[in-house]
Design brief:
Blueprint lengths: L29 H19 L4 E2 L2 E2 L1 E4 L4 E4 L2 E3 L4 H22 L2 H6 L1 H17 L2 H9 L4 H26 L5 H9 L5 H21 L1 H7 L2 H4 L10 E4 L1 H4 L24 H4 L20 H13 L6 E4 L1 H4 L9 H22 L4 E7 L6 E2 L5 E11 L5 E8 L5 E4 L5 E3 L4 E10 L8 E10 L2 E13 L4
Antiparallel strand pairs: 1-2, 3-4, 4-5, 6-7, 8-10, 9-10, 10-14, 11-13, 11-15, 12-14, 15-16
């Protein structure tokens, strides 16, 4: 009988390590300024876009009850769903393209988790102080001062998160109406739920979970390596130049002491928002924010060493090989993006503002009239996808001698973004039918605009004599 081997002492592995809170040190430099500009720009767009108007409505408004999306001067309907699918494909392909070309630019500069975490960190530093002050405060026993500081921070966080939830719902309910209704407690049940839910998610993700979202919850961190190659721009530590690391005084020649340029100050670890050591090599936890690049360059300046010990580079460049920017994968992604973006633009520009749906009466296949003709009953839905009232003429073709009967005076007015249902009857002498069923086409045209129209096929059921 075989026995289970007992692992030797000291070889036990922990399957779960308790989280150690990360206190990112504030850093200044080129990439920090770029990240701040990105954060301010993206937050400005998010919070400002719902307040823009276009004509008599909100410029960006996803009207779910009305089943239409308003984006500046365009109105999209459920029939335009393929455009949304195409837009999502373009977004995914763009992520692949930029990741292959320049690593995790999205994660470091534009991801919502990064953007709101940076905003919450800024608030935290203004209230609690720098990294060392925050660590000291967390270790201190609870007292009046700690309660006031922590309470102030969380109050501001919650107000900011609540405003974020309000803005999010403001994309689906006109925000100019939502704001006063919320503060007077007159919002609907679903509106209140999503405001509180999105606000709570913002408070939890950006205030508490932070790097946990990037490391454990985000799937992108797990499959990004599949898009990397040896020519992808990544943040790397120059081991050949930096090792062996060790502390020394300023002005000391590291070669005389047998050391590399790394002084082992650990500042690159202290500024990392996910708490990793970039000197350990490329890791999936690295979000590519370049905070370690900025702080290492500052240390190199103080020591009088060349910058670039930690830098944006490629694996090939680190090995002294030539980096190729234009490579098959990048070119393929770029060509696909161009084709899809051209297709999306063409689809938007060529959208027909006239819509017509044909619904046949399923209760009765056909009716025989007193004069011997056969009648089919339909319901026509006329859709006006434009932002102004239009009048439609409806006609049929495809069956010679067919008569269209509509109990409405033509042209039929259809309000902007509206749908009008029309009962319609088609009458035909069955003698002209050479089969039990035949296809006919309903055509809706805009009065005064003969080129503006749309058509939809229908099926006429008759009988053969």
């Amino acid at each position: 009988m075989s026995k289970t081997a007992t692992p030797p002492e000291g070889n036990e592995q922990e399957f779960y390590a308790k989280r150690a809170k990360v206190y990112p040190r504030e850093v200044h430099g080129l990439f920090a300024r770029l990240r701040t500009a990105g954060v301010l720009g993206l937050l400005g767009i998010f919070y400002g876009a719902p307040w823009l108007t276009w004509g008599d409505r909100q410029a960006i408004w996803f009207d779910l009850p009305g089943r239409k999306f308003h984006v500046i001067g365009w109105t999209f309907w459920p029939q335009d769903f393929f455009l949304l699918a195409l837009l999502l494909i373009i977004a995914a392909l763009s992520l692949f393209f930029f990741t292959t070309l320049a690593g995790r630019l999205w994660c470091g500069y534009a991801c919502p988790q990064t953007v709101w975490t940076e905003a919450f960190l800024w608030i935290e530093r203004r209230i609690e102080g720098d990294r060392s002050a925050q660590m000291k405060l967390d270790k201190a026993p609870w007292g009046g001062r700690k309660l006031v500081i922590k309470g102030t921070k969380h109050t501001i966080w919650l107000v900011f998160a609540l405003f974020t939830g309000l803005t999010f719902v403001g994309y689906f309910t006109p925000i100019a109406e939502l704001m006063p209704r919320f503060f007077t407690f007159h919002t609907g049940g679903w509106e209140t739920f999503w405001i509180l839910f999105y606000g709570f998610a913002t408070w939890g993700n950006a205030g508490f979970m932070r790097e946990q979202v990037c490391i454990y919850m985000c799937p992108y961190a797990r499959f990004q390596s599949a898009m990397f190659d040896r020519d992808t721009l990544i943040i790397s530590y120059d081991e050949n130049r930096g090792e062996p690391r060790g502390s020394r005084k300023r002005g000391v020649d590291p070669k005389q002491k047998g050391l590399g340029d790394c002084i082992d100050c650990t500042l690159c670890v202290q500024v990392c928002p996910t708490g990793i050591d970039i000197r350990d090599g490329l890791q999936y936890q690295c979000i590519g924010c370049a905070a370690c690049v900025d702080v290492c360059d500052q240390v190199m300046d103080k020591m009088g060493y060349p910058r670039g010990l930690v830098r944006y580079t490629t694996e090939n460049a680190m090995e002294g090989k030539v980096t190729k920017v234009l490579r098959p994968r990048v070119v393929l992604y770029a060509l696909l993006l161009l084709v899809l973006m051209a297709g999306l633009l063409y689809g938007i520009m060529s959208r027909n503002p006239v819509g017509i749906d044909v619904i046949r009466d399923r209760n009765v296949l056909f009716r025989e009239l007193a004069d011997g003709r056969v009648e089919n009953v339909y319901t026509l839905k006329l859709l006006n996808k434009s932002d102004s009232l239009r009048e439609y003429h409806v006609e049929i073709r495809g069956l010679e001698g067919a008569e269209l009967v509509i109990d409405r005076v033509m042209p039929v007015p259809v309000p902007a973004g509206g749908v009008v249902e029309l009962p319609a009857r088609v009458r035909l002498d069955p003698v002209v039918l050479d089969a039990p069923t035949a296809e006919l086409v309903f055509i809706a045209r805009v009065a005064g605009e003969p080129d503006a129209g749309n058509e939809r096929a229908g099926r006429f059921v008759g009988r053969m004599r």
